[in-house]
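Trying the structure run again after the queue cleared.
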Amino acid sequence: MTSATHAVKPSGKPAAPGRDYALLWTGQLFSMSGTMIQYIALPLWVLAETGSALASGLTFAVETLPVIVLAPWAGALADRLDRRRLVLAGEVLSVGLVLALLGAVALRSVPAALVCAALVKTVNTVTVPALQGLIREIVPEPALPAAVSRFEGLTGATIVLGPPAGALLFAHLGPAAALLVNAASFAASALCILAVRARRTAPAPADTPVRARPRLGAGFTLVRSTARLRSLLCAEAAYFLFFGGATAAVIVAASERLGESQAGWYPACVGAAWVFVSMVVLPSRDWTPRTSLLLGAAFVPLTAVAVAVMGAAPLPLMLLAGVLGGVANSFIAAGASIGWQKETDTAMIGQVMALRRSVANAALATSSVLLPALADTYALGPVILIGAVAAAGLTAAFLAGWHKSGAAA
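Done. Tokens:
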């Protein structure tokens, strides 16, 4: 039951997420920016050490596998332990693991560096579901959609800030500087989480039954048995499977046509549009998850058309495609996140969000391999257009199952 202090303000404006949410958001801005700096700097170091594009690509693979394999177990852990303490422990442990990664780089050991990078991602896989659950705990119900949208905006902000900063640090100061910045970002995040107050709830009535801790696999059971959650899972998976790899394909094409230095503008435009939509457009009104997802799906074919005709004016059309793709990404991601948060009980949020993350990353990893390969074998334009039509059509089809019944209690 929502308390009076959590009600919508008389003016009609959504309630503010609050001080604790601001601390959590700020900490994750530090943490995610540092992660994106390492995300670009480490592959560049591996490429410089080995001269192998395949070895450089392995740095991305080792950061995907822990999410796919461990996310369901991580979600169960997040639902069983104190989420604030779990996130705090993860950020502190990440500081030590990044410093270990720094040691591997100093010793010029690529295998050891990849192992350390995988361990950092493993810890992140555990903390992300706990973080999602913590948002649900500390944010008033009426403020939840805006809070989730602004949290999704962090992804866009760090895409804009992180990779260029990582490339500059690597080019001018070396990989050690990028890794030290990442370690410092985890430490700053830990300090912010320390300042987050523990959740305060009124004592439950004596006759209130004690909620049992959810068993492993309960999140999958809940999603399978809940129509709205099934629709969200399938819609997101369809989008990422058929269009998630578009970014990789466009970057490859842009680097061939414009040069490597110009190709970086595409993800920067994606991130800028993501920030604007997630932090300005979505919080401005009470968007329903279905409306947001369908609007995002509508922008997918527009993005594909801009990519398909990119040869006519490579740089302007690439920038336009980046903006359109960022709009699509933000509406899809934020709309789905709002839906997951609204439709899932707090006690189950960790497992459910972990399952969502595992499926989405598996679809994205598959798409990031297949779309560039198909575009290289055939032509970028037709491959992107076919993928866009499939992604938009399937996303809309799965959302047809969205209805008022079947919401989690």
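The chain has two domains: 16-198, 223-404. Worth checking whether this holds up in the mutant runs.
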